[in-house]
Structures are given as structure tokens and as C-alpha cells.
């Protein structure tokens, strides 16, 4: 049932409002995503071929938000990281946090370069120059807000042939009961962006239409009672419910 004190906003406007509290509002799906990426992201990075003819690998974080997962890429040497997002306020936070983090790392143990660009999959036709010909793309908890065809066509345009694409998203079991949103601390109003509920089969089918094949197993994750210490009290109502899925694709 929809909360009575709720407003729906276009996705970019909602995330601009969400930006100041996004990293601090104890969102259990974000926490579950972090938990799963602790193993999935290193496995994904291992898939990226290291050619002797190309000294620097380009990785795009599509819908990087505040840089939650962009930060995880910065200790990887010999890569060029590009963060793309439609929300100027989310992108400002990502730029500040990632610049500080990158400056704190030793030169030999960090990404070679990082760029951030405003990019709206729903309204921008031209890809930013710095993001083109990517060797790999990741997009975490973004798909929920984008039509499937637009999402995968954008990724296909960003990637080189045989490039890899890591996608995580809200599971349809969770989406049937909830969607992304936050409580505005200034007004007490629940704000929700536009969201779609996607089953895994339709995601994989649309990916195939855009020229992707799956790599390895598709991971699904329910919240378990023993997760609550890590995920927080807001996760209690999700125990036993599949809330997250992750999949790696290759552009063929």
C-alpha cells in the first residue's frame, strides 16, 4: 500500500533531493548490494582482459550516484574510471569523495585517471567522449529506473566488443512490495522516483536483444536473519524475501 504522505518525482529530480542523505539513510538494499559486491566485483574485474597493447583499462560506472561503487574501483591500478549520472547533486558528491580518496592513495596503487560527466540515459543521445570505447561497465541499483531497451542499448554503445557489463538491481520479489525512495528529513515526506519492476528472465531476454550474453551464474539474494547486524533494523521486514540480483554480461 502506498504511503499517504508520498510524492512522486521524475527520477533526476528525486535523486537531486536524495543526494544529501543518500549515503547515510541506512538503506538495506544498498547495504545488501555492498555485501554482494564484496565478492562479485573482484570476480568481474578478473574477467577484463589485460592486453599488452593497451596499458590502461577504461571502466564506466553507469549511474554512479554519489560514487558508492566508484570508490571501490579507485585502488585498482592501470585503469581509467568514468562516472556517469543524470543527477548533478549526486555527481557533485561523487566527484568530491572520489577525488579525496584518489589523492590519498599511493601512485602505484590507484587508478590512473577518473572523470565524471552528467549523462541522462533518458534524454542524452551523445555519449560523453571520455566514456566511449569502455572495456567494462558496471551499473548498480540503476536498472529499476530505466526502460530495459534504453538501459542495454546505452551499455552496448559504451562497450567495446567482448566488453563486460556488471548489473545489480532490486529483485522483483522486493519490487512487488516496495520501490526506491527516501524520507525527506526536512519535510517528512516520502519521495519516490519513477521505478519499474523487472523479472530476471525479461532482463536477460532484453540484454540478448542488445547483443549481450550472460557470463557465469545469475545471483539472487534474500535477506537472512543473520544479515540484520550488517543491514540494519530496516531490513527486518525483508527477511526471507529475495531483494537483490546480480548478473555479468558480455557484449558479443
Please describe what this structure looks like.
By secondary structure, the chain is α/β, with parallel strands linked by helices. Helix content is 31%, strand content 27%. It has 8 helices and 10 strands. The strands form 2 sheets. It has a 7-stranded mixed beta sheet with strand order 4-3-2-5-6-10-9, with helices on both faces. A 3-stranded mixed beta sheet has the order 1-8-7, covered by helices on one side. Strand 5 (134-140), helix 5 (148-158) and strand 6 (159-170) form a beta-alpha-beta unit. The chain starts with 5 loop residues before the first strand and ends with a strand. The mean pLDDT is 94.
Topology:
Layout: E1 6-9, H1 11-18, H2 28-47, E2 57-62, H3 70-73, E3 79-85, H4 88-104, E4 113-118, E5 134-140, H5 148-158, E6 159-170, H6 172-175, E7 182-183, E8 190-193, H7 200-209, E9 212-222, H8 228-231, E10 242-251
Parallel strand pairs: 1-8, 2-3, 2-5, 3-4, 5-6
Antiparallel strand pairs: 6-10, 7-8, 9-10
Helix pairs in contact: 5-7
Summarize the structure.
The chain contains eight helices and ten strands. It has helices at residues 11-18, 28-47, 70-73, 88-104, 148-158, 172-175, 200-209, 228-231, and strands at 6-9, 57-62, 79-85, 113-118, 134-140, 159-170, 182-183, 190-193, 212-222, 242-251. The strands form two sheets. Strands 4-3-2-5-6-10-9 form a seven-stranded mixed β-sheet, sandwiched between helices. It has a three-stranded mixed β-sheet with strand order 1-8-7, with helices on one face.
